[in-house]
Amino acid sequence: MRHKRVIPNRSFRVADQIQRDLAELIRELKDPRIGMATVNAVEVTPDYAHAKVFFSVLVGDAKETGEALNEAAGFLRNGLFKRLQIHTVPSLHFHFDRTTERAAELSALINQANSTRAKDDEPVAQDDAAADTKAAD
User: Largest alpha-carbon pair distance within the chain?
Assistant: First the structure.
């Protein structure tokens, strides 16, 4: 029995191509529930049967956008079938990606911590300067 030749990183390349093609196809959708959606990542199963598509939304409701994208998954899969040159086009499962929201929250927390640290350090620096001038006298 002949073994299939394994192409390294093929699943990553297929996922990247799906991500690029889906971004174009989503822009062409006329559904008003889909705001400014961005495809952040695509994970493909090893057998290419399923693909998790992670998206974020700049304008609009994430839940409504997810529902609209999952309803349009068949149409999008058909569009991928026409564009991709692979035997099996995966069924699409859309998931909202909170990475950008988490990054903004963490950035705000870091800025808040830095501002409180700066406030705590200021009086100590002023007291040290006053002590240095008294010691010089």
Answer: 94
Give how far the C-alpha of residue 67 lies from the chain's centroid of Cα atoms, to the nearest Å: 18
For 21-52, write each residue's pLDDT tens digit.
Answer: 999 999 998 888 888 889 999 999 988 899 99
Classify burial at 52, counting beta carbons within 10 Å of its beta carbon; exposed 0-12, middle 13-18, buried 19 or more.
Answer: middle
Q: Which residue has the tokens 């191509």?
A: 17
Token pair, residue 100, equals 């950008």
Tell if the pTM clears 0.85, that is, is over it: no
**Segment 101-120, tens digit of pLDDT:** 888 899 999 999 888 887 77
| Cβ–Cβ < 8 Å for 15, 42 | yes
Q: Radius of gyration of the chain from Cα atoms?
A: 25
